[in-house]
C-alpha cells in the first residue's frame, strides 16, 4: 500500500510538469503583447513596456521563462499578476471561496445523489423511480446557466428568498443556491449511476446468498449491496470534484461569487499568464490527488483489489 | 429535443420577467447625507497609483479620493481651480503655481507644493513603470528621467522647482497655452509622504485628499469608501459613502440593479440597452462621454495613403450610414460624428458640429462617384479590422460593411476582419501590419480640443496609429499651442480639423455616450465627461 502510494505520487511529477508546460506554452504563445494591451486603445510607451516585460521575464525565450517559472514554483513562488499582486495572494483569496462552494455542491450530490440512487434502485419501476428518472432527465437536459438564471429569478426576484447575487462570498448560507445549481447536474448523474448499479447488483449471486443466509435487510443493503455498488459512483465523484472546482465559471459569473472561476476568467481575458498557469496548476493538482484517493478507495470498497 | 425547447422557454421567461419586475425598491427622497450607496465596479487593471491608472475602474476610486490643482466641472467640463490658488505665466512656457493653504490628506499630512512635485517626479520616472508617464512629457527634463531606452540620467524633472510650501514653478519644453487645463487629470494628483515611505502599505489602502477616504479594500471583490468629514473642498460628499462591488459580468450587475440589490451601475450590457429605457425610465443615464470612435487608415501603406486616395477615403466615409447604425446597433448610445472631437467639449471648448462637412454625411451617389474618381478601392475591396474579444465590435463592423456594400452595389466590397485578442490587435497596429482601415477609439485624457487632435494626428505623435503626417496640420497645432488666448487657440485647432476633412486619414464614426442606471433610492446621479459617476453629488434616500 505504502509503496503503491509512493509510486503514484512519483508518477504525478511527470504529469504535473507536462500539464503545466502545455498550459504555459498555450498562454504565453497567444499572439500579442499583454503588457502593451494594458495601455488600452492608447499607444503604449515603448520604454515602459520594455521595462515591464523585463520585470515579468517576458523578454526571455519561452523555455527559459518556463524554467524560471518552474523553479519559482518549487520555492512556492507563483509569480506576480499584472496588477502587481503576487499570484499566491490572488489564489489565497479565491480558492477558499471556491473550495467552500465546491465542497458544498459535492456534499449535496454525494448525500442526496446516493440516497436517491439507492431508493430508486431498490424500488425499480415504482412511481418514485419514475418520478426521479424524469426529474433527473430534466436537470441533465437543462444547461447550467439556464438553471442558474431560473434559480436567481424565482428565488431572488419573485419570492425574495435570497439576494440575486452572493454578497459575501465566504458566507455558507449565501452559497447554498449557487452550490445547488453547481451540483445539480452531477447530482442527477450520481443518482442515475447509483440506481443502475444497485439494480444490477440486486440480482447478483452474493445478494441471494446473503438473503439465504438470513442476514438482516439492513446489513444486506447497507453493507453488501451498497459497498459493491459504489465503485463506479466513486470513480465519477473523484473526477467530479475537480470539475466542480474548475468548472464553476458559469455559476460564479451568474451569482457573482468571487472565486477561482471569476479570477481565472479575468486573467484569461487579459492574457495574464502567471495567474492562469498558477490557478490551472493547482486545479491539476486537485485532479491528481482526487484520482489517487479514488483509486485507494477502490481497495477499501472491494477486498479483491489489493495494491502492492 | 425536449431539453432544448425547455431551455429556450426558460430563457424567454426570464427575459420577459426581468422586464416585468423592473420596478422595485422603496420610495426616493432627499437623503440626510448619511446613506451609503453601492456601485458596480471592476477590478482595476493596474496598481491604484494616480499616474498608473488609465482605465475607468481605477479612475472611479481616484475621482473620489483625490483632488488635484484643477477639477473638471462635471456639467460643463470647464477646468476650475481646486487646490490651485492661481497658475500664472508670461510666455506660455514657464508657469508659477500657487496652491491654497489648509488642505490636508486624510492621514493628517498637509498638502504642500512638495506633495505635487514629488508625485509628478514619481509619475515621470521610468523606474516606476507608470503607464501615464507621458503626461509629464511636456515638462522640461522629461527625456532625462524617462529616456526612450536605457537608464534614467536624472532622478527628478529639471523643470519642477519648489519655491516654498505653497508655490512651485514648472518649465515646459514647448509653448503650451492650455497646459493648466490639463491639470485636472488624476495623474497630476498630489501624493502624501506616506506614499513614498511605505509604498506597499499605501497600495493596500490608498490615502488621498479627496471627499472620501478608503475604509477597507478587499482586492478583487470590494472597496468601502466613506465620507471624509474633514475634507476642505467645496464639493463635499452628499452621501455617507460608497461601496464599490466587483462584478465580473455586467449582466449580473444589471440583474442586481433591477432587484434593488445594487444602487448604481455605470455599465449597461449591450444586450440590455434595448430594454434599459423601459426598465429604468428616467433612472437610465445616457449622456455624452469624451470618447470618439473612428476608422483609421494605414497612411503608411501606399495603397491607402496616397494623395489621390483622399477621394476614396472620403467616399468611404460618405458610404457609411451613421444614423442608421447608431440607432439600430447602439440604441442611440452613440451619436453620429461630424467632427474629430467630442460634444463634451461644448462650443466653448472647441466642439463644432459639422466641421467634417459633407464627407461625414451619408451620400450614396457622391460616395460612389468619389471612390471612382480616386481610382476605386485598392484591389476592389476594403477590409475593416477589429478585435473580436471585447466590446462587441463585430455587430457594427458588419453593419458598416453592409452599408458600404449597398452603396457600392457590390456584396464583397467590404468585409470585416476580426483579430482574436486585443493584445494581438494592438500588436498588429504598432507593427504596421494593417492592410486596410481599422477601428480605433479615443477616450480623452482631459476635456481639451488639443487632446483630441495632437496625440493622434500630429506627425510622429504617440497615438498616431495610421502614421498620418501633414505639415499644415502640424503647423496649425503648433500655432494653437503657442496662442495665449483660449478662443484664438480653439479656432486654430478647428482650422486644423479642416485639414483632416480634406485628407480624411481617419473617418470619424460616432461619439460614444456613457450609460448607466440607478435605483430610486438615489437622486442627482450623473456621469462626468469620463463616464465616471459623480459620486459626491449623489443623494441617498431611504
UniProtKB/TrEMBL annotation, chain A:
Residues 95-298 form the ABC transmembrane type-1 domain. Its main location: membrane. The chain crosses the membrane at residues 12-30, 99-119, 131-155, 175-193, 229-255, 275-301. It is found in: Cell membrane. CDD domains: TM_PBP2 (cd06261). The keyword GTP-binding does not apply. Keywords: Cell membrane, Membrane, Transmembrane, Transmembrane helix, Transport. It is a multi-pass membrane protein. SUPFAM superfamilies: MetI-like (SSF161098). It comes from the Bacteria. Gene3D superfamilies: MetI-like. Belongs to the binding-protein-dependent transport system permease family. This is ABC transporter permease. It comes from Streptomyces olivaceiscleroticus.
Amino acid at each position: 500500500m505504502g509503496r503503491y502510494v509512493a509510486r503514484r505520487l512519483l508518477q504525478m511529477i511527470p504529469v504535473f510538469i507536462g500539464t503545466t508546460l502545455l498550459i504555459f506554452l498555450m498562454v504565453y504563445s497567444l499572439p500579442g503583447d499583454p503588457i502593451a494591451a494594458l495601455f488600452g486603445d492608447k499607444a503604449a510607451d515603448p520604454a515602459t513596456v520594455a521595462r515591464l516585460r523585463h520585470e515579468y521575464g517576458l523578454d526571455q525565450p519561452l523555455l527559459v521563462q518556463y524554467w524560471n517559472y518552474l523553479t519559482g514554483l518549487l520555492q512556492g513562488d507563483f509569480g506576480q499578476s499584472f496588477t502587481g499582486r503576487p499570484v499566491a495572494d490572488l489564489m489565497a483569496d479565491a480558492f477558499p471561496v471556491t473550495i467552500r462552494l465546491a465542497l458544498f455542491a459535492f456534499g449535496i450530490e454525494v448525500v442526496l445523489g446516493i440516497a436517491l440512487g439507492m431508493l430508486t434502485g431498490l424500488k425499480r419501476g415504482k412511481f418514485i423511480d419514475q418520478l426521479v428518472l424524469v426529474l433527473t432527465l430534466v436537470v441533465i437536459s437543462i444547461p447550467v446557466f439556464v438553471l442558474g438564471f431560473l434559480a436567481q429569478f424565482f428565488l431572488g426576484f419573485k419570492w425574495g428568498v435570497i439576494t440575486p447575487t452572493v454578497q459575501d462570498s465566504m458566507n455558507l448560507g449565501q452559497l447554498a443556491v449557487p452550490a445547488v445549481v453547481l451540483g445539480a447536474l452531477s447530482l442527477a448523474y450520481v443518482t442515475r449511476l447509483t440506481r443502475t448499479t444497485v439494480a444490477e447488483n440486486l440480482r447478483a449471486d452474493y445478494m441471494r446468498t446473503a438473503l439465504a443466509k438470513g442476514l438482516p435487510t439492513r446489513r444486506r443493503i447497507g453493507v453488501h449491496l451498497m459497498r459493491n455498488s459504489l465503485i463506479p459512483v466513486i470513480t465519477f465523484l473523484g473526477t467530479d470534484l475537480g470539475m466542480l472546482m474548475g468548472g464553476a465559471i458559469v455559476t460564479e459569473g451568474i451569482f457573482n461569487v468571487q472565486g477561482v472561476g471569476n479570477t481565472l476568467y479575468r486573467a484569461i481575458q487579459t492574457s495574464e499568464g502567471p495567474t492562469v498557469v498558477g490557478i490551472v496548476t493547482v486545479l491539476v493538482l486537485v485532479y491528481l490527488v482526487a484520482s489517487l484517493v479514488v483509486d485507494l478507495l477502490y481497495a477499501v470498497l472491494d477486498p479483491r483489489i489489493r495494491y502492492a | 429535443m425536449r431539453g432544448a425547447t425547455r431551455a429556450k422557454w426558460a430563457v424567454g421567461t426570464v427575459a420577459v420577467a426581468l422586464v416585468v419586475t423592473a420596478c422595485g425598491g422603496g420610495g426616493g427622497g432627499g437623503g440626510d447625507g448619511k446613506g451609503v450607496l453601492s456601485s458596480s465596479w471592476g477590478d482595476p487593471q493596474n496598481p491604484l497609483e494616480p499616474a498608473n491608472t488609465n482605465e475607468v475602474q481605477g479612475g472611479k476610486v481616484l475621482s473620489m479620493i483625490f483632488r488635484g490643482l484643477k477639477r473638471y466641472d462635471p456639467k460643463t467640463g470647464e477646468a476650475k481651480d481646486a487646490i490651485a490658488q492661481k497658475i500664472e505665466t508670461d510666455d506660455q512656457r514657464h508657469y508659477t503655481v500657487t496652491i491654497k493653504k489648509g488642505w490636508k490628506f486624510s492621514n493628517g499630512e498637509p498638502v504642500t507644493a512638495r506633495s505635487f512635485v514629488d508625485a509628478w517626479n514619481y509619475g515621470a520616472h521610468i523606474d516606476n513603470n507608470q503607464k501615464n508617464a507621458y503626461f509629464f512629457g511636456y515638462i522640461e527634463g522629461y527625456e532625462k528621467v524617462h529616456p526612450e531606452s536605457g537608464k534614467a540620467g536624472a532622478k527628478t524633472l529639471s523643470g519642477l522647482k519648489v519655491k516654498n510650501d505653497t508655490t512651485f514653478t514648472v518649465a515646459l519644453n514647448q509653448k503650451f497655452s492650455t497646459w493648466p487645463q490639463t491639470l485636472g487629470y488624476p495623474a497630476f494628483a498630489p501624493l502624501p509622504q506616506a506614499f513614498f515611505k511605505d509604498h506597499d502599505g499605501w497600495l493596500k489602502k490608498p490615502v488621498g485628499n479627496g471627499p472620501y477616504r478608503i475604509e477597507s479594500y478587499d482586492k478583487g471583490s470590494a472597496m468601502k469608501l466613506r465620507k471624509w468629514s474633514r475634507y476642505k473642498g467645496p464639493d463635499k460628499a452628499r452621501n455617507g459613502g460608497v461601496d464599490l462591488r466587483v462584478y465580473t459580468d455586467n449582466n449580473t450587475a444589471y440583474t442586481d440593479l433591477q432587484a434593488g440589490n445594487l444602487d448604481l451601475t455605470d455599465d449597461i450590457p449591450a444586450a440590455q440597452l434595448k430594454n434599459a429605457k423601459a426598465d429604468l425610465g428616467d433612472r437610465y443615464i445616457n449622456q455624452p462621454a469624451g470618447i470618439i470612435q473612428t476608422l483609421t487608415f494605414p497612411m503608411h501603406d501606399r495603397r491607402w495613403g496616397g494623395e489621390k486616395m483622399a477621394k476614396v477615403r472620403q467616399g468611404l466615409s460618405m458610404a457609411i450610414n451613421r444614423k442608421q447604425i447608431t440607432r439600430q446597433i447602439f440604441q442611440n448610445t452613440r451619436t453620429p460624428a461630424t467632427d474629430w472631437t467630442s460634444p463634451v467639449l461644448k462650443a466653448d471648448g472647441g466642439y463644432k458640429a459639422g466641421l467634417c462637412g459633407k464627407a461625414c454625411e451619408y451620400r450614396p451617389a457622391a460616395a460612389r462617384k468619389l471612390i471612382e474618381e480616386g481610382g476605386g478601392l485598392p484591389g476592389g475591396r476594403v477590409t475593416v479590422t477589429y478585435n473580436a474579444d471585447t466590446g462587441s465590435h463585430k455587430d457594427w463592423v458588419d453593419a458598416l460593411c453592409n452599408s458600404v456594400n449597398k452603396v457600392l452595389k457590390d456584396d464583397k466590397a467590404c468585409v470585416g476582419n476580426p483579430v482574436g485578442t486585443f493584445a494581438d490587435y494592438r500588436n498588429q497596429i504598432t507593427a504596421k501590419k494593417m492592410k486596410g482601415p481599422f477601428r480605433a477609439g479615443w477616450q480623452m485624457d482631459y476635456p481639451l480640443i488639443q487632446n483630441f487632435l495632437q496625440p493622434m494626428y500630429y506627425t510622429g505623435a504617440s497615438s498616431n496609429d495610421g502614421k498620418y503626417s501633414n505639415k499644415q496640420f502640424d503647423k496649425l497645432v503648433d500655432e494653437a499651442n503657442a496662442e495665449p488666448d483660449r478662443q484664438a487657440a480653439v479656432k486654430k485647432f478647428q482650422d486644423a480639423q479642416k485639414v483632416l476633412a480634406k485628407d480624411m486619414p481617419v473617418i470619424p464614426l460616432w461619439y460614444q455616450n456613457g450609460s448607466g442606471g440607478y435605483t430610486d433610492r438615489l437622486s442627482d446621479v450623473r456621469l462626468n465627461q469620463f463616464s465616471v459617476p459623480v459620486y459626491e453629488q449623489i443623494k441617498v434616500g431611504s
